[in-house]
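Quick one, T. Sequence first:
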Amino acid sequence: MNSEHICDISLAITGSGGAGSITAGELLLSLAGKNSCFGMMRRSFGPQIRGGEAAALIRISHRAVECMNDSFDLLLALDWNNADRFAEEIALRPDSLIIADPAAGDIPEAFQELGVEIIEVPMKALAKDITAGRPNMVALGLLSHWLGFCSDEAGKLIDQVFGRKGEEVTGGSRAAFTAGFTEPLIVAAREARPRPERGDPGNRGTRWHFNGNQGCGLGAIRGGIRFAAAYPITPASDLLEWLSPRLEQLGGSLVQAEDELASINMVIGASFGGVPSMTATSGPGLALMTEAMGLAVASETPAVVVNVMRGGPSTGIPTKSEQVDLNMAVYGLHGDAPHLVLGALDHADCILTTEWAVRLAEALQTVAIVLTDQNLAQSTVLIPEPKYELPEIPARVIAQPTDGYQRYEITDSGVSPMAIPGTASSTYVADGLEHTESGKPSTAAADHLAQLEKRSRKIQSFDFGGHWADIRGVGQTAILTWGSSSAVAREAGARLRAAGHEVKVIALRLLLPASPEKLAGELENVSRILIVEQSHSKQFHHYLRAFYDFEADTRTLARPGPLPITPAEIVEKIENWS
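Structure tokens:
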């Protein structure tokens, strides 16, 4: 295997819906792993349900990467159908390269005006001369040669991916790949360009190839989830599709409900019956679930909701990412409804955070909302095997048969034993009405106060340990962030430290309950704080102001989607601080 040409390269493949840009990108990322590299691919789509434009945005490196880079080295266009809509997302430099098919028409002005080098390769014509040949496989060959990948590995991968479609499709795909790999224009252009120094291939061991939705699904299963109910919604549907067959293999099940209200009520019902349960949705669905989540809090029934954020409000931009459901997750339940809100920080963290959320929900008998977003959920990474340790968390406390059972008994911890329906001498009523310790409905002020304090105490007094945040580096300057912005902030922090700046990056994983004492300790010697988030209204900034007091000089870097914040923007903000 030969990967000597790669240090850290970013490239984009664009095309109309059905042209195969995403498939080519996925195969290229797989080849990166087989060539001892790490990588990441972000999928970008137009607003259409079907068809429309698509782009695979890929970063490949000899070092593990968690986010996209600031700009792209190469853009390959299978066609130019609405490709100009990606102009902001695919930032090119003067030394970047465009590979395009001359039959695709004129290059959009947004890319032409950059003055970058353009190589025209007749990808459609090359594919047309091959039985079952496709232009995206020609493109895969072009890019594989450019990156110095081994063609033998590509052939094996094509056989593996397309083998079930028959010999004609598999053979055509291999022939199209070879046509691109040996294309003289690319061979000559690659030889003419200066090659980067050989990178350190790093860990040649096992690489995990997965997206954030799959990570959340794995974390849910590790946490003990055996029932899920959900209504499909972009960008959470991939999680449900991955989870369904795996739950079945474990003796569980997934039900596609008629809507989001039915989904969360099914989850509450299954959990009431003793089965750890979850749903997955996005902003519009979470809005519909808030009343039922209040029922789970009041009845102290464990429930996990994975909410994959997207651009809003309303239908908004379903295929683009934004960190804008924080307010709803933290404040959206009516009444005083103590619950948990956690935010996954990166792809590997989707596993950790979701497993942790399931275990916490079960232990504390409440609702746990896990926030991810389209950027995490639908982008794919090649990373070393994720390894983590969670603190010891007690399982759901199950009541044993006993006379005089009180479901909502006032305890020191606030957690009361929960009887499984049908347990002898342990029947009780679970509903949304305030109640006595036995579960009998009550409007008495004393009963209401006692139960409010009980529900609050079990969360506020629980020891969440060190997983409340991910903290890296030291210094008087701190970057404070959450969710998918964390990986970007960490890369910016690494660049700043390499340039001689002392910078600490604090990424909050546990958002509710807040951890004011712990954060105050981390900020004790900090004089400058930069708050980074993907939100127009600065939801994270206002959340922090509500729960924390900052004495340091505080500034924000906040922008709505769909254009992601880059590491360079954070670096510039810190370096130009005055």
